[in-house]
Amino acid sequence: MAQPGQPPAVDNNMTMSIVSIFLFWPLAIPAIINASKVNPLLQQGDYAGAQAAAAESKKWSKLAIIIGVVWLVVVLGCCLLGGLGSLFSAGASSSF
């Protein structure tokens, strides 16, 4: 809880940035960089800068998570379709 006269704490979104690195690392890197800027900016008294860095971190993290999940769904879909296709082609060729 913030003391009187101090701005409230800003969530640096570091957890979401770390999670996003496992899904799509190219966009997670700027998320982590921006998340690491939040606390030093707060210590310097730059509340607006800390909020901007937190917003950038959240934006990059969300983008990395969305792209990572979509990519995972596409890859799993292709694997399933390829597996089903090979099952049907193997069954068709062994029937004669």
The number of E-state strands comes to: 0
Measured as a percent range, the helix fraction is over 70%
- Our estimate of the beta-strand percent is under 5%
Largest sheet: none
Uncertain stretches of 5 or more adjacent residues:
none
Rg (CA only) = 22 Å
**Class by alpha and beta content:** mainly alpha
Shape: rod-shaped
Task: Estimate nothing, just give the exact number of structural domains.
Answer: 1
Order of helices and strands: HHH
In DSSP terms, counting alpha (H) and pi (I) runs of 4 or more, how many helices? 3
Mean pLDDT figure: 89
Distance between the termini: 76 Å
Main traits of this protein?
single chain, 96 residues, mainly alpha, 0% strand
Task: Write the topology of this structure.
Blueprint: H1 14-21, H2 25-43, H3 47-93
Brief overview:
By secondary structure, the chain is mainly α. It has helices at residues 14-21, 25-43, 47-93. The chain has one domain.
Question: What report would you give on this structure?
Answer:
There is one protein chain. This protein is an all-alpha fold and 96 residues long. The chain has one domain (14-93). It contains three helices and no strands. α1 packs antiparallel against α2 (25-43). The relative contact order is 0.15. The model has no long low-confidence stretch (mean pLDDT 89).
